[in-house]
Design brief:
The structure holds two protein chains of two kinds. By secondary structure, chain A is α+β, with helices and mostly antiparallel strands. Chain A is built from four helices and four strands; from the N terminus they run H-E-H-H-E-E-E-H. Chain A is globular and about 40 Å long. The relative contact order of chain B is 0.13. Classes of the chains: A alpha+beta, B alpha/beta.
């Protein structure tokens, strides 16, 4: 962790913020996205400015045939997570944070 | 309540498919295909022993969603025929719940059980703790004689290894009045004489075996037939969807509803009448009064505690007054109550002004099936501006606070809130009824669900989020005068 902080301070410009978008489209909400809301507190707490988390309008994932079954969706950078849970999203962020490091 | 389990995910998935099938060119055929669409040939079998059983259970869930009871059926029914029947139905089923026998795991009976963690220790605290001589040590391990065990749990507390546990049957554990239990074949059976339709078993069953008999087809059909279908949504529903209640109104109108009213409008009437009633009762020497707007509580009183009736407010529920307004405004309307709970289905049956009930998740399924993005909707205003107090009726403490808001300082009630009907709070209520007084306060608000209606079994949003959404609405609302 100490090493990470050092990198942010000195090479801040090189660090890319990982964008997390939680879909709040109707389908995702009906399929349980409100249970992901703790991410809005958890992510800044855990990752500070390295990761941003925002509520998003429909990400368009559910428009295909029957794909409502796999909602809720969360986008971490360019990766779409289906049947998203807090744990799944954190695992994906962790993977990327480690890669950036 | 845990409204985020995988079984609820499946339940909503099916409802959405049902709406899509209804909107398709061949409802009956496409309904019959749902089990095969969800578990196609060669698909993974995530939960049950085989794909055939998974499909069978999906079929049973669809039958309940079509509005039928499963108890009288014998598995020979064809889904396409059931779907056709659902379109012909004129009346709704009496009891709101039905158990899917095939989905019920038939959990082992509730009992105290010695696990493998038992070390066969020298202390033998369990043997000493048991007052009924049910525990013996044999082969280096404790054994419980089921014929002597009284399920008291003393051995559980005594064991230094936490090796003794109580096995529970979740539905039995959740039911506050012992109306659901394992029947002769080991699967859950509801005693409808006792059942208060609170819905706690629906949320508690880890196998999703207790289902509501939905009115979704009846509502969709009424809309399709061009009837004036008017929705009135409970205050708790305001917290179940993304976007504001003004966007929600637009979304519901897009889904086909002719008009949309907040039940908070009726809650304003309830508050006014109930606060006047409270003052009058206290003036006439009453020691306490309980609220009367929770349908689960009302069902409980009728079936299990009629003795408390003299202490219960005579004021009608917000739904009652709202439905009256709807039928005055639109005498030819089909009115639909949008509900966070099962119990309201019972209240609706007794109210000629309300025709159908949709749950939050059923309404959500209609939005998804009809591709309605609530957050992209324009605002639509309501004819009546409901008060802040009324809009908070669905949150525990909200009703008592509303009543108190209209009372002068010297009249203010000493409010006490029963936050959830449980075996313990039922004991409390029985005591109030027996003693004819309540030491905890003179205005007792009773909510069957923990957290209030936002804790209802058929909600979409987590209670925490629902409360947050409702609070942001309250900030923009005016005080009741």
């Amino acid at each position: 962790m100490i090493k990470l902080n050092y990198i942010i301070e000195t090479k801040g410009a090189l660090m890319e913020t990982i964008e997390v978008k939680i879909c709040s489209g109707t389908t995702c909400f009906v399929m349980g996205s409100s249970f992901l809301n703790e991410l809005y507190e958890l992510i800044p707490q855990k990752y500070g400015e390295k990761v941003s988390v925002t509520q998003s309008l429909c990400l368009g994932q559910c428009s295909k045939q029957d794909t409502h079954s796999n909602a809720p969706y969360v986008k971490v950078a360019d990766t779409i997570i289906s049947e998203a849970t807090v744990e799944k999203v954190l695992a994906e962020i962790e993977k990327r944070v480690n890669k950036n490091e | 309540m845990n409204n985020n389990s995988q079984s609820i995910h499946i339940k909503r998935d099916i409802l959405i498919r049902l709406v899509k099938a209804f909107d398709s060119d061949n409802f009956e055929k496409n309904v019959a295909k749902i089990p095969f669409d969800m578990r196609p040939k060669g698909a993974d079998v995530p939960y049950r022993c085989c794909i055939y059983k998974e499909r069978e259970i999906i079929k049973d869930r669809i039958i309940a969603d079509l509005g039928f009871a499963l108890e009288p059926l014998d598995e020979s029914e064809r889904l396409d025929e059931m779907a056709a029947d659902s379109l012909q139905r004129k009346t709704i089923e009496e009891n709101p719940l039905t158990v899917i026998d095939a989905a019920c795991k038939g959990c082992v009976p509730s009992r105290v059980y010695v696990t493998d963690l038992c070390q066969g220790c020298v202390a033998r605290a369990c043997e000493k703790a048991c007052k009924f001589g049910a525990i013996t040590i044999a082969g280096g391990k404790s054994h419980i004689d089921p014929s002597k065990c009284k399920n008291c749990g003393m051995c559980i507390n005594a064991c230094p290894y936490n090796a003794i546990v109580r096995l529970i049957v979740p539905c039995e554990q959740a039911c506050p009045i012992g109306a659901i239990s394992k029947g002769e074949n080991g699967t859950a059976t509801i005693d409808f004489e006792k059942c208060i339709s609170c819905g706690k078993c629906v949320a508690a069953c880890p196998f999703g075996a207790v289902n509501e008999k939905s009115h979704i087809i009846d509502v969709l059909k009424a809309i399709k037939d061009g009837k004036k279908v008017v929705a009135m949504f409970a205050p708790a529903i305001a917290g179940q969807f993304p976007g504001s209640i003004f966007q929600l109104k637009s979304a519901m109108k897009k889904a086909g509803f002719f008009d949309v009213l907040e039940v908070a409008q009726g809650a304003d009437i309830t508050t006014k009448k109930e606060s006047a009633e409270f003052v009058e009762r206290i003036e006439h020497g009453a020691t306490f009064m309980t609220t009367s707007c929770c349908a689960g509580y009302n069902n409980f009183i009728a079936k299990h505690l009629p003795e408390i009736k003299p202490f219960v407010s005579d004021t009608k529920t917000p739904m009652y007054y709202t439905a009256e307004i709807v039928k005055q405004k639109y005498p030819d309307a089909i009115s639909v109550f949008i509900s966070p709970c099962v119990a309201k289905r019972k209240e609706v049956q007794a109210n000629e002004n309300v025709d159908y009930v949709l749950n939050a998740d059923e309404l959500g399924a209609i939005f998804v099936g009809r591709k309605i993005e609530i957050l992209e909707m324009e605002d639509t205003q309501y004819d009546y501006d409901s008060s802040k107090q009324a809009r908070n009726f669905g949150v525990t403490g909200g009703v008592a606070a509303a009543v108190n808001s209209l009372l002068d300082d010297e009249e203010k009630a000493n409010a006490y809130v029963i936050d959830g009907l449980t075996k313990d709070s039922i004991k409390q209520l029985k005591k109030y009824a027996k003693d004819g007084c309540c030491a905890d306060g003179n205005l007792v608000e009773v909510m069957c669900c923990e957290g209030g209606c936002i804790g209802g079994n058929s909600n979409i949003a987590s209670p925490k989020i629902a409360k947050k959404i409702i609070n942001s609405l309250l900030e923009k609302s005016n005080d009741l005068k």
